[in-house]
Specification:
- This protein is an alpha+beta fold.
- It folds into two domains: about 140 residues, no CATH class; about 60 residues, no CATH class.
- The protein contains nine helices and eight strands.
- Strands 3-4-8-7-6-5 form a six-stranded mixed beta sheet, sandwiched between helices.
- A hairpin with a 6-residue loop joins β7 and β8.
- The longest helix has 24 residues.
- The radius of gyration is 24 Å and the shape is elongated.
- It starts with a strand and ends with a helix.
- The C terminus is likely disordered.
Length: about 240
């Protein structure tokens, strides 16, 4: 599942489902991109032609640079922010890369404070500071937490069917459930976490109570109305 996630709204804005053989780069080219927006993604989505297309559409991107990428340094910027090792303006130097992605970009080397790991970013954002670029990439971890939450709370680790439609249907239902829970938590003021709300709904899923009632009153649910003949119950228990 290829997903565009808004870290400020804490919700996905677009997703597509492909087979495992479909490379991330091919799926990315089909994603709708909004002008003026900054997209952050990992190295699996590295595509120089796509980088150029985004720049032409006034779309900003931030990603990890491949270690074997060839480039030439055009100029170096002063480094003053904590953790920033290098901030340079570059152009890709291989013949193929120069042809499909001719514009200048920034290469930023940054070391994480918590574990000392060095990261190298490439971006077409020439306005933000190097520290802000590193901060944007740090926000990318929120999409990993989103997938972790979906797997832990919405039961898609195991599929009820193995056909394409069965798998897609279960994933789409999980996404709809997430969005409804998120919407309910935003619209109805309450202090419960999304996980607490999901558990509350799961416990009451077979009871006829509105989501508003559940959030206002979390006491024991009313007994459901009897929908069967008592004689049938007696026969079953005999």
């Amino acid at each position: 599942m290829h997903t565009v996630y808004d870290p400020n709204a804490h919700t996905p804005t677009f997703f597509s489902i492909t087979t495992a053989k479909c490379h991330d780069r091919k799926a990315a080219r089909k994603m709708p991109l909004l002008s003026g927006t900054t997209y952050v993604f990992d190295r699996a989505y590295n595509d120089y032609a796509w980088f150029h297309e985004m720049s032409q559409q006034d779309v900003r991107f931030v990603t990890r640079m491949k270690s074997n990428a060839g480039f030439e340094v055009l100029e170096s910027n002063d480094v003053t922010e904590p953790g920033v090792l290098e901030d340079t303006l570059i152009k890709l130097s291989s013949a193929r890369a120069r042809q499909i992605c001719p514009q200048a970009m920034r290469r930023i080397r940054f070391v994480r404070e918590d574990d000392g790991k060095e990261l190298t970013f490439i971006t077409n954002d020439l306005k933000r500071t190097a520290g802000e670029i590193a901060g944007l990439y740090k926000q990318r971890w929120q999409i990993e937490l989103f997938f972790k939450w979906i797997k832990q709370n919405l039961k898609i680790k195991r599929f009820f069917g193995t056909g394409e439609n069965a798998v897609k249907t279960q994933i789409i239902i999980a996404m709809i459930a997430y969005l409804l829970l998120h919407l309910a938590r935003k619209v109805i003021p309450n202090k419960r976490t999304l996980q607490q709300l999901a558990r509350l709904v799961a416990v009451n899923i077979l009871h006829r109570r509105s989501i508003l009632d559940l959030l206002v009153d979390s006491g024991p649910p009313e007994s459901p109305k009897t929908l069967y003949d008592q004689r049938q119950l007696a026969l079953i228990n005999a």
